[in-house]
Design a protein that fits this description.
Elements lengths: L1 H26 L26 H16 L2 H4 L1 H17 L6 H30 L6 H17 L7 H43 L2 H4 L1 H19 L3 H53 L46
Helix pairs in contact: 2-5, 4-5, 5-6, 5-7, 6-7, 7-9, 7-10, 9-10
């Protein structure tokens, strides 16, 4: 009986311990996982750097001055003033933004005004000198292009590049008339200069007045250089100067040679007269073989022998023809 009672007590103790252990496990709080949120750092917004429009400003300023030099401020006063106002507004803005496109348009307008002003001046010269007939097609093209430009410039929205293209077309057409005209004049004047030089060669001016002759020949050579580098007006002026100087030199040398020949003829006449008188005197009163005071021996050398230059060797040879460069668009 005592053994049974002891076993029962042990069993109760074990059961109690087991329940208490279960209870403790149930009472332990559940462990939760900690989630760490990633914090993203915000990137600071960088301020845009201001744009430097300095080069575009300088280019527009240079074109403005070129337009003034060409007379555009007078020829196209309203258009020039309007472009100036737009340019000044951009310079005053100074907002650090890129204005290269607007400045390029302003520059193109200044370039257009410069080209149109030069075209007008060249047209006036062509009309004054009556050059149009030397290249009528080019002149007519210039007239049309300039008229078109004058209409286009009155429309404010016309792009500067378009205006510049039309103004340049007008100028190039008028320049073609001028170039072809003076090329023709230079060719004719060169022929005249060569002819006058040959006249000098004929009277031996290359020996009698060699320094002047050389200078005038140099004018023809200078003209050839100008002609070959597309400067027909410069060539024309050089040829004209050479022709005028050669003509005057030939006339002067010819006149002096004529004077010299006259003196020689007169001296010969006097010598002839003296010879006739001497022959008559010798016939009347022979002198014989005895030397006479004041009269040189027949074989006496009175002057040193002259060494004359060969005039043909002193002629400066110049080619009859001259090559020319192509007309440049200005």
């Amino acid at each position: 009986m005592k053994k049974l009672s002891l076993l029962f007590c042990v069993t109760l103790a074990v059961l109690f311990a087991s329940c208490k252990s279960t209870e403790q496990v149930a009472e332990e709080p559940a462990q939760t996982e900690t989630v760490q949120e990633e914090v993203q750092e915000e990137t600071p917004v960088q301020e845009e750097k201001p744009v430097d429009n300095g080069d575009s400003m300088s280019a527009a300023e240079a074109s403005r001055q070129a337009a003034i030099d060409a007379g555009a401020k007078d020829e196209y006063a309203l258009a020039f003033a309007a472009n100036d106002a737009a340019f000044e507004a951009l310079k005053a803005l100074d907002d650090g933004k890129d204005h290269s496109a607007e400045l390029a348009d302003i520059k193109a307008r200044y370039d257009a005004l410069a080209a149109a002003a030069k075209a007008k001046k060249l047209k006036a010269r062509i009309d004054e000198e009556g050059l149009a007939s030397n290249s009528q097609a080019d002149y007519d093209a210039g007239e049309k292009a300039l008229a078109d430009f004058d209409q286009m410039i009155a429309v404010p929205v016309t792009p500067g590049a378009t205006l510049n293209k039309k103004a340049t077309e007008a100028y190039n057409s008028y320049y073609a008339v001028y170039f072809k005209s003076y090329k023709k004049f230079a060719n004719n004047e060169r022929k005249n200069a060569i002819a006058q030089k040959k006249a000098c060669d004929a009277v031996k001016a290359q020996v009698a007045r060699k320094d002047e002759y050389k200078t005038y020949a140099g004018m023809i050579i200078k003209g050839d250089q100008q002609y070959s580098t597309s400067n027909p007006e410069g060539a024309f002026n050089s040829y004209k100067e050479a022709a005028s100087n050669f003509e005057a030199l030939a006339a002067d040398v010819s006149a002096k040679r004529a004077e010299a020949q006259k003196a020689i003829d007169e001296a010969k006449a006097k010598v002839q007269s003296v010879d006739e008188y001497a022959a008559q005197a010798d016939a009347e009163k022979p002198l014989g073989d005895e030397p006479v005071a004041g009269i040189e021996a027949e074989d006496a050398v009175l002057l040193e022998k002259d060494e004359f230059e060969n005039p043909d060797e002193k002629i400066i040879q110049i080619d009859e023809n001259v090559e020319t460069g192509k007309g440049e668009e200005r």
